[in-house]
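Weekly structure sync, notes
Attendees: PL, DS, HV (note-taker this week)

Item 1: GNAT family N-acetyltransferase
DS walked through the input record. Source organism listed as Herbidospora solisilvae. Sequence as pasted into the shared doc:
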Amino acid sequence: MVIIERAESLDAGEILTLQRAAYVSEAQLYGDPFIAPLVESLEQLRKAVESAVVLKAVDDGRVVGAVRGLVADVTPGTGTGRACVVGRLVVAPDRQGEGIGTALLEALHERVAAEHPDVRAFDLFTGHLSDANLRLYKRLGYGETRRERVQDHLTMVHMRRVVEP
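Item 1 (cont.): predicted structure, written out as tokens:
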């Protein structure tokens, strides 16, 4: 049975290993072995665990998934609300397709809403060729807001899920 709970600094090494395993297929899809999740350091991930809402999915003592959300002002200084930037949703390659990614995102939505009731949106991005990711995000209420070409081979699809007050 998969349990979703908050990650701690001690989980950073296992999450980093999982992240690298999960993002290999994305690197292959885009022909780029230097995508950010593959070159992130252990120290960078530890800092993310300390500064963001990082959840892990655990099954029988093994971390099989993780996601992070960083809450920030939508427009700093305007008081118009805050957004949670979702990143690094990962599921172990041998556990993909079991609903773990969905459960992690739903748990993140709930946890952020409980801890930060002023959050008005969840924002994320993924590559334009990442069809499974795009389907998942759309199914969970995210809509495309814009596309940004960042390299010849890569266009980022930015998406948002609005939270009703």
